[in-house]
């Protein structure tokens, strides 16, 4: 492990901020708010993989933010044979974005590992999440103060794994690939994106996916103590 590390770049969603749990709570809230009687576990079982597919298309610049927000819901309802007007789907999409960042559940060990790392390193965020919600998520979950810089895809104009977002984040932090490391859950966006510009990386593999054997892996955030 490189002993010259000064800067640690974290992904936010699915790495520190427990996106799946927060998302489920938000859907439960907005369905009740809009008087929709849906089986939440059944809905999520269809929505979650579709959402991941749309985020991959979004990262690859194949769909817009607006397309992602609408069609991840429409495709889910279509699959479940639930007929809803476009106006209702748009309302649900807006309600979801408006309320998602009010949730504040973090992965187990988040505060402990940030408290451990903060005195030793400069901490930063690189996220593909939407600019209008990411800051609010961090403030609501009380982790905003840990980070020196926050780089999101909308301010750069590209998304991870595009090299430009990593280079922008490094420049913003006055850091280099030699004295920095990236930590994230997404193998393609976070890990390969970082490695492709010569930035070391650790994969937070909480979902227990099969990862290439030469990649540094942790299954719990506190396992970072083995490396940092």
UniProtKB/TrEMBL annotation:
Source organism, top-level taxon: Bacteria
Gene3D superfamilies: HAD superfamily/HAD-like (3.40.50.1000), Putative phosphatase, domain 2 (1.10.150.240)
SUPFAM superfamilies cross-referenced by the UniProt entry: HAD-like (SSF56784)
GO molecular function: 5'-nucleotidase activity
Entry-linked NCBIfam families: HAD-SF-IA-v1 (TIGR01549), YjjG_YfnB (TIGR02254)
Protein name: Noncanonical pyrimidine nucleotidase, YjjG family
Taxonomic source organism: Mesoflavibacter zeaxanthinifaciens subsp. sabulilitoris
């Amino acid at each position: 492990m490189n002993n010259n590390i000064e800067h640690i770049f974290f992904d936010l969603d699915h790495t520190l901020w427990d996106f799946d749990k927060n998302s489920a709570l938000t859907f439960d809230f907005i369905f009740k708010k809009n008087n929709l009687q849906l089986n939440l576990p059944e809905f999520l079982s269809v929505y979650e993989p579709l959402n991941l597919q749309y985020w991959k298309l979004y990262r690859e610049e194949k769909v817009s933010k607006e397309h992602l927000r609408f069609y991840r819901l429409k495709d889910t309802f279509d699959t479940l044979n639930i007929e809803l007007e476009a106006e209702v789907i748009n309302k649900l999409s807006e309600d979801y974005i408006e309320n998602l960042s009010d949730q504040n559940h973090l992965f187990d060990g988040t505060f402990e590992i940030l408290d451990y790392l903060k005195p030793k390193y400069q901490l930063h965020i690189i996220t593909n999440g939407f600019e209008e919600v990411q800051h609010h998520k961090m403030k609501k979950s009380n982790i905003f103060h840990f980070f020196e810089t926050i780089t999101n895809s909308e301010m750069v104009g590209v998304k991870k794994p595009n090299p430009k977002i990593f280079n922008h984040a490094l420049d913003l932090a006055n850091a280099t690939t030699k004295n920095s490391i990236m930590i994230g859950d997404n193998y393609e966006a976070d890990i390969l994106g970082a490695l492709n510009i010569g930035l070391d990386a650790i994969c937070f593999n909480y979902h227990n996916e099969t990862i290439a054997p030469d990649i540094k892996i942790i299954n719990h955030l506190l396992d970072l103590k083995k490396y940092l």
